[in-house]
Amino acid sequence: MPPLPSIRVSNSAILKSTSYIPTAVLVGGTSGIAQGRAEAFAHHTKGNARIFILGRNKQAAETNVQKATQELRKKHGVLVMSQGYFSVAGYTEAEGLDKKMAVHYYSRYEFIEELLPSLSRAKEGGEDAKVLATPTYNDLMLEGFAARNPTLTFGHAYPGFVRTNLGNAKDSPLWMKASVKLVVALTYPLSVSVRDCGEYLLHGVLETMKTPGAWRITNDGSDLGKKKYYGPDEDRKALWEHTVEVTKVK
């Protein structure tokens, strides 16, 4: 793993060298991994950036993806998505979909699909245009987007063990919340803070994902390549067709 101080220096140098005001959209950025990414981005740009942070709370729960993206259509260069939560509640239906799948997968597809025009405009204007997503299912989805948008860059990150509040979903039982806190405490030396994770993933976006296509990056932002990859063409095609049908994005 590259030394964190050198990662910070590299991130700062790259963002300071841009000839435009960088713009980032961070979904799930009110906490966790995307929060760390937002903090790192804001720190290295010294506030000279446009940062859109989208989260869900009681008042915002009624707002769907299409409404949110209407305000972001002009132009933006980086889209980071890490919205998610951990629960042992099993299948929980929301608008005909399992709630966890809707948050972890389908919402990511819709955000990318809806914001493709603004990503393309940023790329045409000489800016970086990249998408970074976590966690699973996204390899095949991002490869599908990359095949259909050959000028854009898409990345799927494995963030590793990050000290977030993921186990604090309101429908999780108290024993689960207590267990998560215990595990985090016992494995503290093996994990990283939200802010440090943000630095590593920012490094992956700025340094590793330099060319268009579909990337897989590790918890330190380096190229994962095809290690532990399971994605034949027929699975990618089947998942894409299923996702288009479920989300009704034509």
From TrEMBL:
Task: Give a yes or no for keyword RNA-binding in this entry.
Answer: no
Q: Which keywords has UniProt assigned to this entry?
A: Oxidoreductase
An example molecular function term from Gene Ontology annotations: oxidoreductase activity
Tell whether Oxidoreductase is among the UniProt keywords. yes
The name this protein carries in UniProt is: NAD(P)-binding protein
